[in-house]
Amino acid sequence: MQDQKKNPRSIWYYYAIVFLVVTLIRWLIMPMIMSAQVKVTNYSEFINSVEADEVTQVQFSDTEIKYITEKDGKMYLCKTGVVDNPQLPQMLQEKNITYTAEIPETPNVFLSLLFSYGLPILLFSLIGRRIIRNFRGKMGPAGLSIHGQGTAKVYKPDEDKKTFKDVAGQEEAKESLMEIIDYLNNPIKYQEVGAQCPKGVLLVGPPGTGKTLIAKAVAGEADVPFFPISGSEFVEMFVGRGAARVRELFEQANKQAPCIVFIDEIDTIGKRRDSQFSTNDEREQTLNQLLTEMDGFEGNKGVIILAATNRPEVLDPALLRPGRFDRQVRMELPDLKGREAILEVHLNRVKTAGDIDVNFVARMTAGASGAQLANIVNEAALRAVRMGRNSVTTSDLVESVETVIAGAEKKNAILSKKEKEIVAYHEIGHALVAAKQSGSAPVQKITIIPRTSGALGYTMQVEEGEKSLFSREDALQRLEVLCGGRAAEEVVFDSITTGASNDIEKATEIARNMVTRYGMSEKFGMMALETGGNNYLGGGGQSTCSPETARLVDEEVRDIIAEAYDGAVKTLKENREKMNELAGYLLEKETITGDEFMKILEGKAV
Ligand code: ADP
Ligand code: MG
Ligand code: ZN
Asked: What is the CATH number of the domain that holds 574?
């Protein structure tokens, strides 16, 4: 509202500045430029030039003589004073130089003012309007509230309506949100008892788990307007707008109650306000305004604020206290059942051919988020189209999982025969170590077709079910499998290559976590050596130990990996014959299935 008054005023400032600038140009800069171009000469120089045939044109006026000379092909505009010299016209005549007397101008005040002021001001004001309009455009769909529009876009319940059916899995989240939907549908029931509806609910979880989706679905289920706004929009264009935007948002929401306001990525404005360093006043004011607004409106009006974040640990505690975002709904990465459900929701939107082994695809995608699964289904549909089919098959899905994990196949990559052999032994090394372990995930597929991600081949293991707890033995087995590739290279070729870099990275991470986070080393036992780190976005935590201990940790990590490596070498040496047979078969076929692999390993015919 302030801006309605403020804006016209700032437009007048703008015009005043334009007027000043134009005046400056007209009376100071222009004459300077003009005079800089005109060379002032003596009268005798002028006469000399005339005699040297350099002058091409002369113009007389009462106070000065302007003339143009041409020297070495360059033109100069010069002027000199008037000397009473009656021979001059004759002289010019002889030299055949055109000369004119200036026609005394009747100065047209109106026209000259129009050109020196009117035109520039018109131009500037056109440009100015353009700029102002652009600013407004960038402020979001509704822009500044000059025209009395609000800030957030109103989603009418019927446009782009999502319901809980679109959100697969996440049953716990749905259950906690059910109460809010029920409140929005029958507020009387709650008011009779005197119960207040929670004002704010914070959706917390890793990216792509459907936080935005479920917020929209809550509005859809309750059939109320949905006001989405992203945290970053508050802090966007103009300094000082953030707090005003919060006010406007709540004003509009209050008018539309019951409704749902959704603040996405709330951590942009809701960061803890403690640090003395890097204070961002703008953000702080916006947050303060948000806190005030949340306190201001009554819980029973039916405005419910949902907010989403994947960094709950950075949020300001004031935001989380009762009466504000006092409820947290966790959206975790889907488990096996959840992944199946999500795949099914998205598969419903594409045409499928016959039976799709959803369970298998779900098992392949442990750790994938809802967004990734949606992407996998879409990739599969694209692949079906590429292959000239009109429906999606299981193999499309499997292939697109691989594409998402390892990149697309690079069919025309050129590897020398020797390199291919090394890759084949490397992959067989992984697979063989895995197969010889009891209880590790069965090998599903081995391929030595290079991928665009840079992988020259890979071995895919698919767990039979879902695992939530990993034992120390599991971790050690996993390490051995990771070491199997490099170990095979060493056992067979007695030389090692760069092909194991990814394995080394993963193995080190596992071993380090075993020591610093999971208390799985004998030396340190249950001692946390690392804290923090974001649960959802990954990223390392902070080491909490002294430098001496850190050195011991490194040693421990090294020992664990070395032990796993020795284990892998031992397994491979024991199965040296089989390894040759398997690698030969893989070299020939380039891609083999887990079944083929097991049959050869067990000595059966393929
Ligand atoms: P977030 O806000 O948590 O980062 P989104 O809600 O934007 O994630 O999810 C992105 C997309 O992923 C959704 O549009 C949807 O297609 C898909 N998706 C994520 N979770 C689910 C789910 N549980 N059920 C169905 N689709 C999902
Ligand atoms: Mg989101
Ligand atoms: Zn490897």
From this structure: 1.20.58.760
